[in-house]
Amino acid sequence: MIRQELSTSYQEVRARHYRRAVPALPPDQLLFLTPAVLFLLEGPKPWSSPPLDPVPEAVRESWGMKLGQGRARRWVSLDSESASSSIRFSKACLKNVFSVLLIFIYLLLMAVAVFLVYQTIMDFREKLKHPVMSVSYKEVERYDAPGIALYPGQAQLLSCKHYYEVIPPLRSPGQPGDVNCTTQRVSYMDPFSSQTLKSALIVQGPREVQKRELVFLQFRLNQSSEDFSAIDYLLFSSFQEFLQSPDRAGFMQACESAYSSWKFSGGFRTWVKMSLVETKEDGREAVEFRQETSVVNYIDQRPAAEKSAQLFFVVFEWKDPFIQKVQDIITANPWNTIALLCGAFLALFKAAEFAKLSVKWMIKIRRRYLKRRGQATNHIS
Questions:
Q1: Is 102 domain-assigned?
Q2: Which residues span the membrane (predicted)?
Q3: Cα distance between residue 314 and residue 309, in whole Å
């Protein structure tokens, strides 16, 4: 009984000490009171030595303010950590979005490079199949004397002369005149009809193109059973080659097979302006003559008795000092194609490498973000 009374009285005294010593603190701040602080706040126990002085009110208020500030700092630190984690998350999201966009861009570039490679190969094949004709001009001081093959038939050569620039007026038309040209006669079998013998008069053509050299020929046909009268002729590239050929008949057969033939009619003066074209195609070289022809009517002033004989006049002259060269050109340069293909394949390789590195970087960033989020969750918990 005595022991119970003593304990009851001690508890009442201690309760009065707490009410007097401990200030009115909120319940959540009482949790931070340590035993030392409680000892100072309690004051002296009943059985202890002389009682200590009670804790001043200002000290107790400063302790309460410090406890509140510590709790506020902890909440502020937690808020700052959550804000920094959200900022890191937004940056990581932006980086991932940009990485995905870059990957799509490089995939698009890879598709374009593949299309360019395919288109380049197809264009190269088409250009190989269809070469382009290139035309160039070469200026010369003088030409090699061309050969003029005439097939007069029953017509007679009256005159042949070389003039420069101007032909003088006719003195005695229809009468034999001077033959100042180098001529040769040759007979050969027609290459298109082996039963026909042809006789050709080969005349050396003009050479001095700068001096406007020309060859003027005059023929006469006394009688003809045909309704229309004309003399055939053809042009070949070199009269000197004809003279040096051991088989002139075979040479003329080859020329007639390779070159075209033309005609000039009686009663007119036919002016032929020649131009030379050299053609190179599929590794074969060929020479072709092109001509411009102008026809002028001849005013026959002979006596009526001589008009029964028909006269033929023809003039051969070079048109200009330019030789036209025509050759096939393949516009598809293989080196350009190879360079373009190398560039396309290099772009493909670089794009694939960048895509691979971008994927690795995204995986690394994702792992780092998950690791940081796990650490933040553990710290908060």
A1: no
A2: 97-118
A3: 17
Q: What was the pLDDT predicted at 186?
A: 92
Other CB atoms within a 10 A radius of the CB of residue 19 amount to 9
Contact 317, 212 (CB under 8 A): yes
CA 345/CA 339 separation, integer angstroms = 10
**DSSP letter, residue 165:** S
User: In Å, how far from its chain's centre is CA 101?
Assistant: 28
| Range 187-192, long-range pairs (CB < 8 A, 24+ positions) | 187/249, 188/248, 188/249, 188/250, 188/252, 188/253, 189/249, 189/253, 190/256, 191/253, 191/254, 191/256, 191/257, 192/257
The CATH number linked to 146 is 2.60.470
Which parts of the chain sit beneath pLDDT 70?
1-92, 95-96, 99, 224, 332-333, 381
113 domain-assigned: no
Rounded CA gap, 93 and 33, in Å? Answer: 45
Nearest Cα residue to 131 out of 309, 294, 290, 328: 328
Could you tell me if residue 230 is inside a domain?
yes
Domain extent at residue 144:
139-329
The pLDDT of residue 27: 46
| Residue of 317, 311, 268 lying closest to 289 (CA atoms) | 317
In angstroms, the CA 373 to CA 375 distance is 5
Q: How many domains does the chain have?
A: 1
User: 94-116: b or e for each residue (b if 16 or more CB lie within 10 Å)?
Assistant: eeeeebeeebeebeeebeebeee
Dist. CA 381–CA 379, nearest whole Å = 5
Q: How far is residue 6 CA from its own chain's centroid? A: 111
Encode 113-137 in three state secondary structure.
HHHHHHHHHHHHHHHHHCCEEEEEE
Tell me the chain's radius of gyration from C-alpha atoms. Answer: 59
124 found inside a domain: no
- Which one, of 116, 109, 106, 112, lies nearest residue 341 by Cα? 116
Burial of 24 (0-12, 13-18, 19+ CB in 10 A): exposed
For the record, the structure tokens of 309 come out as 């004989």
- What's the full length of the chain, in residues? 381
Distance between CA atoms of 237 and 259, rounded to whole angstroms?
10
User: CB of 381 within 8 A of CB of 81?
Assistant: no
pLDDT of residue 315: 94
